[in-house]
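Notes taken during the Thursday session

The instructor put the following on the board and asked us to keep it in front of us for the whole hour. The protein is DUF4249 domain-containing protein. We were told not to look anything up and to reason only from what is written here. First, the residues (325 in total):
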Amino acid sequence: MKKLFPVLVLAATTLAGCETDVNLPEPEHTPRIALRYLLSNATPTQQSEAMQAFNQLYVSHSQRMFDARPLQGRPDATVEILDATGTVVERFRQATNKQWQTYPRPRYEPGYYEPTMNFAAQPGQTYTLRGRLPGFEAVESQLTMPARPQIERATYTQRPPGDYGQLRGRLSLVLTDPAATADYYVVIGKLYDTQGRPYGDLMTEDTNTEFGNVGETFTLSSLYNDYYSSLAPYPDTNVNGRQFTLSSNVVSSTSYGGSNVPVPAYLELQVLNLTADAYKFYQSRQRYQDTEDNPFAEPAPLYSNIRNGYGFFGGMSGTTYRIQL
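Then, after some discussion, the predicted structure tokens were revealed:
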């Protein structure tokens, strides 16, 4: 939580041209568990490395408003996922660094956990998360997994390459939205070479699309565990129960350098449908970041759906569509 009270006091006294000290009483606080986790309809072993890191369970706890110590994660949590019958379908253990993993770094940053049962949630089914920490009240949250996105077709039309030879094109994606539910779509694009190896990411070119805005253009998302501004979900508010199209000019990023760069062979689109709670959390996180270092901004609290605690338990169901280049 931002420490706004001292900043506001300083700003107020500076503007008034006085040096009056104001003592503010600290609000009462009961320490509670804080966690985040995103449940997927794909098993962890089926998820990409970026997706595994993005979904990773993190457990910490709250602290007093005026406590300036860096908040640390907790390595001693017990967290389980249960299905509608009360059967435990997933358990977690402390995470270990993978060879590819640069962020987060569980070895140096406690609080990260990895699943042990390789569970994949089923769309339409209800699941409960339960978490415990020694000395804290247990927490719980429940969700119903959203339907998998229904992709009708997708096309990619090549455009002239960029100034540095990047692959550029026009992407168009047609989805059919179910009428009975509220849906929140995320689209991720990746390129692969002829050997099926990652070639690079596909990004929207020259866009100012705001979070949650569906218009004539849309923004591809990227998965970064601590940079939620790279996530661009689209609610079905204006397209509920209808077929709709998302289109965008896109450009590639590549991890290759030098000469003899391989040619990308195909484009893979991953379309995700988020639960409403996940959408609200990421939306609140974006608003929180937008107010950073602004003492006069309106409060931007983070959305939470954890009973007796803080954080969020969200779900996502995904569909993959491949386009040959």
